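Minutes, project check-in
Item: structure for the 358-residue chain
Input as provided by the requester:
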Amino acid sequence: MMATVPLRLDDHAYDVLIGPGVRASLTDVVRRLGAGRAVVVSARPAEWVPDTGVETLLLRARDGERDKTLATVEALCGEFVRFGLTRSDVVVSCGGGTTTDVVGLAAALYHRGVPVVHLPTSLLAQVDASVGGKTAVNLSAGKNLVGAYWQPSAVLCDTDYLTTLPRRELLNGLGEIARCHFIGAADLRGLPLVEQITASVTLKARIVEADERDTGVRHILNYGHTLGHALEKATDYALRHGEAVAVGTVFAGRLAGALGRIGPARVAEHQDVVAYYGLPAALPAEAEPADLLRLMRHDKKAITGLAFALDGPHGAELVSDVPPEVVARVLERMPRAPLADLVGAAATGAAANDAART
């Protein structure tokens, strides 16, 4: 029932444990690190936090993009100072993607780096945010614009946490699983959720091992994210990250088709995969293409123009300097639906792979 995915870099190595009850391994992880004390930052109830085995300060956190800020990082670091945290201690995150990112960045910056262990409690955090060492917070201008690379010392993806999540939160994570279909994963449709998580984490681990600092192949992990991040910002985060990435994935397929990189059948496959997972595929009717283009220019991959991770004859790759007029044309031709309908469907509908969650 438990899987271990190793991630091995030149100067750092750790394991991602996946399965029910793996949070109980935290004591062993802390002991192996030789940490004398711990700060646990949790967005979940205290009973969700396992024993660290050492003197521990428990800090409350809140998941959600509005707390994914430099102010939150500063507040955490202030608490670290008051506790007397040192480099020989450890920081532990327990929560969703926001908590994982914010705590990871605080650990990276405090004393120029202290060990961090992630206990991701949402599907999104388990398949994406907790693995690979990217940490970031938002600015008013856009998402994830300030951050650092700081690899964790261990990641414990306890799937028991997922049984407590509302449907929309599960759907949020499925957006990241769906995009794996186009960046090198096998077809994950129909597999049990634990196998989907393990396959997604394994794919990400291998890509990060090849390119830790996002200078090459790691860009493909942002498949669907360029438009996805713009949609999050444009809707004031009413669209959740995984939902926005799903729409971005459909868009990426259409854009690749418009550029002649893939044929109509592969373009349609993007729509089919997203639909299978019960994810939205339409742009919010309120989102103006001109505003989305402006936001996409802030994307970190864009150096001299618009850049997207796109499918092609040799698989997914980063494509730079995509003509703005082509992007605008594809945006104009995307299906549209009122934002309220997209959010409502995500909150109340039934995903196509409900059986895969067992």
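Outcome recorded: The first helix runs from residue 26 to 33.
No further action items on this chain.
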